[in-house]
Amino acid sequence: MKKRFAVKFTGQSGQGINTLGEILAKGIKNSGYNIFASREYPSIIKGGYAAYQIDFSDEEVLASSKYSHILASLAEEALHKYTPFVNPKGIIVHSLKDFQFSKEESKYIEENKIQVVHIDTKQIALDNKAPEIMANVVLLGYIWKLLDLDIKIIEKLLRKIFAKKNIDMDAEIRCLMAGYNIDKPKDFSIDKSQLKIKRNWNKSKVLTGNDAIGLGAISAGCRTYFGYPMTPSTTILEMLGNTYKETGMLVKQAESEITAAQLVMGSMYMGTRAFTATSGGGFDLMTETLSCAGMTETPFVVVLGQRSGSGTGVPTWTGAGDLNVALGAGHGEFPRCVIATSDVKDSYELIQKAFNIADVYQIPVIVLTEKQNAESMFNISNLSKPLKIERGLRSGKNRYEITESGISPRWIPESAKPTYLVNSDEHSEDGISTEDPQTITEMNEKRMRKLLTLRKELPEPVYYGPKDAETVFIGMGTTKNAVLDAVKETDKKIGYLHYQYIYPLKFEKILEIYEEGSRVILIENNQSGEFGNLVKRECNFEFPEKLLKFDSRPFFVEDILDFLEK
Amino acid sequence: MALKIEDYNTNVRNTWCPGCGNFGIHMALKQALVDLKKTPSDIVLTFDIGCNGNGVDDIEGFRFKGLHGRSIPLAVGAHLANRKMTVISDIGDGGLLHEGVDHLIHAIRSNYDITLLIHNNQNFALTTGQATSTTKEEKPMYAFPDGKAEGSINIGELVLSLNPTFFARGYSGEPQQLADIIKEGIKHKGFSVIEIMQVCPTYTPESNHEWFKERIKETERKATISEAVKCVKDMDIIYTGVIYQNKNLLDYYSRLENRKGKKTELVNEVKNIDIKGILNIFE
Ligand SMILES: Cc1ncc(C[n+]2csc(CCOP(=O)(O)OP(=O)(O)O)c2C)c(N)n1
Ligand SMILES: [Mg+2]
């Protein structure tokens, strides 16, 4: 690929890969480049292998490439695993004594002119009077040398990030320098001459999708978060918990997702803003509350962080196979809104929008994210201004008054305000339970009318690409990122129609693009093409071509390029 | 105008069986609220699903009839959002011990400042008389002509095993005493668990008013949990009154470091909040 590079850092989980990955990512960013960093790790605490890949360029980077230019490894299994994904003329650096590549690996290395360097990082750490565990920092120093970047930048960062930890900082720096002072092979270089250094990038922020969701919620005046740990949503709890002093937010770990959902509903009913985040299994437990919020017309916001698979699935890997459950969860028929995020920019914005929709329409809003967005690091120079808060509060005679828009008056329960009954039994306008067939029909119609009102007010999908694109991909979530990155690597005229507001669906743009004669391709990170099925259901349009991936891996840039070559 | 019981009445026709213990419970609850000078708009009541929950139509206040077993977490969510409101959670023995027993356990250890009214009529009444954990073991019940094959749960014992800050027991046939207990519960700053022995003339007719009258005995607060446990374990006498109270433990919200000294409630704080101050951790 022309204008981007990738460096991968791997080791056993427990060897500090995440921390070093973060330092590396921020270090490259602070050197004036745009980065995207993604994590791969197993669902265990120690052992197994973890990897951090940082892709960088002078243009925006949103997705990972399958192949890296530098592979650095502290662990045997990881080295075997990732060797076949090193670029031709790339370099492998490892710290493993007597490591043997397999026959095929050796062949791959030779054919692709890949260099292999062994560094005894442990010994170097010990020689520098540092504990063995700091071997990883020696490797970090050497990677920095290979990248040929300013050592001061990484040193400063190391000091900042490790400042909070109780460690021997001088030893860390000695290890960093020792790694950096090793000569790099003469014939290896990362040719950054094509890349322009952008001054403003070093001031920009490095956020994960989950950070952006947390920040968006804070901006939106959300005052309480109820969670229960589940990858890939757990770090929302972490981020909000670690900033709770600054924000004053009430952050609570509930006894279950059932409870978290009820706490959200109770708090929203009382008139504050609350949300919860989970993954598929936890979301399943919340579905009774989703249905109850639908019937009682209580605002409700839940972030559904997708990983892959049914059951426990593949807990720490990515996918987008939970659209169906988002659309269908909960018994009975009730209006809902489903939104999909793809990167930090829209995660920050869409969570705010979710609160406004939930409040104004008095419906549950499900905000989809994916591990690939939730836990990956993006850099962003500026977050947009906070969205204006819209609550739609107004008083009235009856809490469930039948209106043309379907939206009834709602006011905050407070002393000296008129009291009312919120009822999960079917009820008449005053909230009192009813079994009268006509009232039941009217109330059902009233609630569902909110969907029509909402659909009219939702923004259209976002189109990226030239007006006269030959090929247009259509999808939601992080598939956008791989396509947009791939577009930069080809001369073909490619477009992407990006859906953020999934339901109620605005399908007209799809039909328009198709009728204009473009080649239209559905792209999804799931097996059955769930978004495509929704489109079919809503407007009877069948996608002529589909690019589906469901191996728990995100779309890599090469996946898109290979598909276009076929 | 002085607050009256009638201010808590509604004009919706009640659906309980004649002689149902829920009448006495609501009478006591309304009396307690009036005595405490709480107007209906000061009160948030969450209701479970069951005969107890059908009482939602019978009382004024901000009311939320939610899902079976979930009355407690719904009430907690409401309470945390605005502690100026008096929050009362209503639930049956079925909803409490079966569908949502985890919520009871965690609410006790969290010591949220709300009051829990347990309508213990010793069966799933609204679904027409199935056995619960408080049904007598030998008693034939819906679909189980020889009685349940499972053991029982003594609510007082369960609650007291979790280091609660307030446990009381009342009886639906003694609404005046029950009103006093409820008042104590509402005044208590913490999670107040009130078990109400409730007559169910339809499904547990053998435990009628006479049966209870013979066994019920008022008691004083116990100084220690172990004394309180001894008292609730008694099978021959059903002791009522505030059985245990500990005023020395802080409620959940008061333990939140970041809310200390805050004058506003979460409901008053919904506005755009500047994130600049925390953005530097992402550089
Ligand atoms: C999730 C769920 N499961 C089952 C029911 C059916 N259901 C309604 S009331 C009830 C039992 C109520 O028993 P209890 O909580 O003791 O209240 P009571 O009617 O005795 O006052 C059941 C099982 C339901 N509404 N929701
Ligand atoms: Mg019962």
UniProtKB/TrEMBL annotation, chain A:
In alphabetical order, the GO MF annotations are: oxidoreductase activity, acting on the aldehyde or oxo group of donors
Pfam families xref list: POR, POR_N
Query: Where is the Pyruvate flavodoxin/ferredoxin oxidoreductase pyrimidine binding domain positioned along the sequence?
Result: 216-443
Occurrences of domain Pyruvate/ketoisovalerate oxidoreductase catalytic (ranges): 14-180
Domain of life of the organism encoding this protein: Bacteria
Question: Which keywords describe this protein according to UniProt?
Answer: Oxidoreductase
Keyword check for S-adenosyl-L-methionine: no
Question: What biological processes does GO assign it?
Answer: response to oxidative stress
Protein's name according to its UniProt entry:
2-oxoacid:acceptor oxidoreductase subunit alpha
Q: Which organism is it from?
A: Candidatus Dojkabacteria bacterium HGW-Dojkabacteria-1
From TrEMBL, chain B:
Q: Which InterPro entries match?
A: 2-oxoacid:Fd_oxidoreductase (IPR051457), PFO_beta_C (IPR032686), THDP-binding (IPR029061), TPP_enzyme_TPP-bd (IPR011766)
> Which Gene3D superfamilies does the entry mention?
3.40.50.970
Where the record annotates domain Thiamine pyrophosphate enzyme TPP-binding, the positions are 66-196
GO BP annotations of the record are: cellular respiration
In alphabetical order, the GO MF annotations are: oxidoreductase activity, acting on the aldehyde or oxo group of donors, iron-sulfur protein as acceptor; thiamine pyrophosphate binding
Q: What keywords were assigned to this record?
A: Oxidoreductase
Residue ranges constituting the Pyruvate ferredoxin oxidoreductase beta subunit C-terminal domain according to the UniProt record: 200-258
What is the name listed in the Swiss-Prot or TrEMBL entry for this protein?
2-oxoacid ferredoxin oxidoreductase
- Organism equals Candidatus Dojkabacteria bacterium HGW-Dojkabacteria-1
